Amino acid sequence: xxxxxxxxxxxxxxxxxxxxxxxxxxxxxxxxxxxxxxxxxxxxxxxxxxxxxxxxxxxxxxxxxxxxxxxxxxxxxxxxxxxxxxxxxxxxxxxxxxxxxxxxxxxxxxxxxxxxxxxxxxxxxxxxxxxxxxxxxxxxxxxxxxxxxxxxxxxxxxxxxxxxxxxxxxxxxxxxxxxxxxxxxxxxxxxxxxxxxxxxxxxxxxxxxxxxxxxxxxxxxxxxxxxxxxxxxxxxxxxxxxxxxxxxxxxxxxxxxxxxxxxxxxxxxxxxxxxxxxxxxxxxxxxxxxxxxxxxxxxxxxxxxxxxxxxxxxxxxxxxxxxxxxxxxxxxxxxxxxxxxxxxxxxxxxxxxxxxxxxxxxxxxxxxxxxxxxxxxxxxxxxxxxxxxxxxxxxxxxxxxxxxxxxxxxxxxxxxxxxxxxxxxxxxxxxxxxxxxxxxxxxxxxxxxxxxxxxxxxxxxxxxxxxxxxxxxxx
Amino acid sequence: xxxxxxxxxxxxxxxxxxxxxxxxxxxxxxxxxxxxxxxxxxxxxxxxxxxxxxxxxxxxxxxxxxxxxxxxxxxxxxxxxxxxxxxxxxxxxxxxxxxxxxxxxxxxxxxxxxxxxxxxxxxxxxxxxxxxxxxxxxxxxxxxxxxxxxxxxxxxxxxxxxxxxxxxxxxxxxxxxxxxxxxxxxxxxxxxxxxxxxxxxx
Lengths: 475, 202
Known about the structure:
The complex is a heterodimer.
Chain A (H helix, E strand, L loop, with lengths): L6 H8 L1 E5 L2 E5 L2 E4 L5 H9 L10 E4 L16 H17 L2 E3 L9 H7 L8 E4 L13 E4 L2 H10 L1 E4 L3 E8 L8 H12 L7 E6 L1 H4 L3 H9 L8 E3 L4 H7 L9 H11 L11 E6 L6 E3 L7 E3 L13 H14 L14 E4 L1 H4 L2 H11 L9 E4 L4 H10 L1 H8 L2 E2 L20 E4 L14 E4 L2 H10 L13 H4 L1
Parallel strand pairs in A: 3-4, 3-6, 4-5, 6-7, 9-10, 9-12, 10-11, 15-16, 15-18, 16-17, 18-19
Antiparallel strand pairs in A: 1-2, 2-8, 13-14
Chain B lengths: L5 E4 L1 E4 L6 H4 L39 E4 L11 H9 L3 E4 L4 H6 L6 E4 L2 H13 L5 E4 L4 E4 L4 E5 L4 H9 L3 H6 L2 H8 L15
């Protein structure tokens, strides 16, 4: 009898073409592109006179540079404009499916793959973007690569890689009913640290994980990279199949049954060994918020900012001192006392319809504090349309949010959407690095629900901190 | 790419963990479509501070970075490596370099050198104390020597695939294309339900 294998082993071995001491040669089933990390790869290909080996396994969109303002759907600068024209030119030349800025199919690349049914269990998926980990939610091996590797996949549809180690992260217990997938992600990163997953692919396991919707699993896997892991995966189950059924590019007819039978076989076998196994008890976990400059530096909403002395290692103490200095925060104050200037809801972490619905439920009948600038950026044009059909756009607008067009926006701060220097933001994105949301910006990562409550109170707050709605005033 | 055998030089010690690629090269630099000309973007924000180690005139010839753990975490941007390379950085020494960045560095001939934290600390302290301290890296044999730190031919960790391409100066695409038959074989047996893309779907 064959020895028991993990989900990760099964996928890796099914795509293995050659194995040498210098690494495994792996076939890539889907190659996704944004406009930012691919132009140099296409140019390299052209200079060497090479072809795109499998254009039918490639899909491209413009997301990083794209302005999201209502009346200014044009590029804010010439350099970005050139980049978008390059992408359009190469996609046309090589026959690659492409969703340019403002088109009806446009959106953030990691939102588009799942929404079109292109992301399926058992696949290998790459993109020149670290948040490719998002697709792992479907039980796919999906990870970010550099531009040279983008060129390598374009030319060969393969990558030569050292085989990643496997890690199981099992979530146990019952989180507080206010806790979301984002809070689970922040708690996992807080436990593992920013490099706890380095060299590994993580399989997220346990009832808590499998009770999450696909959207929630995407949020969790999206942030596996923030714990240093190449990617995070969740084994496909009935929730996965229900999500994929009837999606534009998912298997149809008899192929559907064949595919589902295969997808069912991918789950980790009982008794399979991981290189590392970690269990995290999330009992009572409540909404989380980051206070520092990496996503591991977080506390529950309402808690105090830790002092450097409370950390064990010198390296952590030094990191805390540097973080507090950049954030202009004092240890011992409550995170709830931090005045928030900007609230951003969106990104490949939390820009899906479910995220917008969750935030809208909190905002319904409430108003954004006058001191706050709040914007919501749907993850794709189709999500924007769906939200408008549901009237969610009205809830946001009436509350005082700017309702914008899809793109990476304030998550990466490349398109003109930035937090002013020195100001604090509450953001549903994935990175609170120094200057990530604009030079001098001070980012606090939160869930969509916490972002909405924060916008209302003008300070970091979870929905349970909100006073009940005064029916008269609320209308 | 040119084959590498020995890298020798003085260093910039950066006593800080989790140096992410947004610090190495801010995102605004990613709007460019060129592969060169990124040197002024390297640590652009941190260099505004005159006390930052890159502004030390005694280190103007340095070519090696010695940094805290988890160097290069965050964004996959290879632009960060173009900035290091264009600035003249030949190697990065840390106890851990983030996965994607560790794979990107050697693509541009910059050597990722992973050593145990206590060895990194010895080298860090030596170069902090004296800007002229020299570090010698034997790429072929995967060892580091820094006399002033008391480090002699200490083995470092590097992915086999990266090492193989660096010491031979091979183009990884050329190497992979010699496996074309095996790739074709895999392609002929892919599962029939796997999705396809194309301009016709737009």
